[in-house]
Design goal:
Distance between the termini: 43 Å
Structural class: alpha/beta
Helix content: 40-55%
Shape: globular
Order of helices and strands: HEHEHEHEHHHHHHHEHEHE
Strand order of the largest sheet: 3-2-1-4-5-7-6
Number of helices: 13
Strand content: 5-15%
Largest sheet: 7 strands, mixed
Oligomer: single chain
Number of strands: 7
Radius of gyration: 21 Å
Length: 310
């Protein structure tokens, strides 16, 4: 079996979840099962862990790791954005904790063959769910120059969005862009060699396409809206995010959950009706240690935030 993906900040995740042996927990991004396995080890005979992933191959890869915990683990092909429907189908009203690890696993990057990485030549698919409606290639070859520029700005925070969008449109008139190497070649043609010494110039473009193809920010927004109704009192939401767009969304949502009444200070009584929903477990995000980053370089951009339902 291929070397197992190392779960990020696993000890900090477990501390933040405060697992009760008889609780019901959700790993909304099962991946290869690293975090799920650590959670399952802390559950008693009556505890339940629900593992969700939109990628059926990820669920299959997780099974060997989760072997022995089968009575307590339910794996389902579904998005964490649909957690309310999943719980309803299972006859569960509320859970004691939800974990989301929003990063890509090493196996998704290295072995999926779907074009997540710019370091090998693969079809530009980028769908985590193989049944998803649109591939990255379809977006690249169908969006207008202005739409491509906006996509790169919004989802990649790419400062050269206009130049890259223009180059993509110019090149696709010669032949459709179907592979990672074609896209990388276009982007590198706009970058002098000295600019390639740090972060690869295609990094932000690949991030933007992946986010757009999988509707990642829309799914995260949906989950954050639904979470207060799905978490039991004193239950925890723990989220690992990996880039500034996710960091901001999670941080703002948790601050809003904690804020409660938004009426002006001079109002004699509350008329907005907003209540405190959660309290943040840590005011500042938890980040990996230097030691963990050395052992697992893909953990370097991770930030953990947690909140407890009140």
């Amino acid at each position: 079996m291929v070397g197992l993906h190392k779960p990020v900040l696993v000890d900090e995740v477990l501390r933040s979840l405060q697992i009760k042996p008889d609780g019901i927990y959700v790993d909304g991004t099962l991946g290869t099962g690293g975090h799920a396995c650590a959670v399952a080890q802390r559950l008693g005979p009556s505890g339940i862990l629900i593992g969700l992933d939109v990628d059926p191959s990820a669920i299959e890869r997780a099974r060997p790791r989760l072997k022995g915990f089968e009575p307590q683990i339910i794996t389902i092909k579904a998005s964490y954005a649909d957690l309310d429907q999943v719980l309803q189908d299972l006859g569960i009203s509320k859970v004691q904790g939800v974990l989301l690890d929003l990063g890509l696993s090493s196996l998704q990057l290295d072995l999926s063959g779907r074009g997540f990485s710019f370091s090998r030549d693969e079809p530009l698919d980028m769908r985590m769910d193989p049944d998803g409606p649109k591939t990255a290639a379809q977006l690249l070859n169908s969006l207008s120059e202005r739409q491509l520029e906006q996509l790169l700005r919004d989802f990649g925070e790419e400062p050269r969005a206009r130049a890259i969008a223009r180059a993509i449109v110019r090149e696709r008139t010669k032949s459709p862009i179907r592979t990672t190497s074609q896209l990388v070649k276009i982007i590198e043609s706009l970058s002098p060699p000295r600019a390639r010494l740090g972060k690869h110039p295609a990094t932000r473009t690949f991030q933007a396409l992946r986010i757009a193809v999988n509707e990642e920010l829309e799914n995260l927004k949906l989950f954050l809206e639904k979470a207060p109704e799905l978490i039991d009192r004193q239950g925890r939401v723990v989220i690992l995010s990996y880039h500034s767009l996710e960091h901001r969304m999670v941080k703002r949502a948790m601050q809003e959950w904690e804020r409660g009444c938004s009426c002006p200070a001079d109002f004699p009584r509350c008329v907005c009706g907003k209540k405190v929903l959660f309290k943040r477990v840590n005011k500042r995000a938890i980040v990996p240690s230097d030691e963990e980053i050395r052992a697992n370089p893909r953990a370097r951009s991770a930030q953990l935030r947690a909140a407890e339902r009140v």
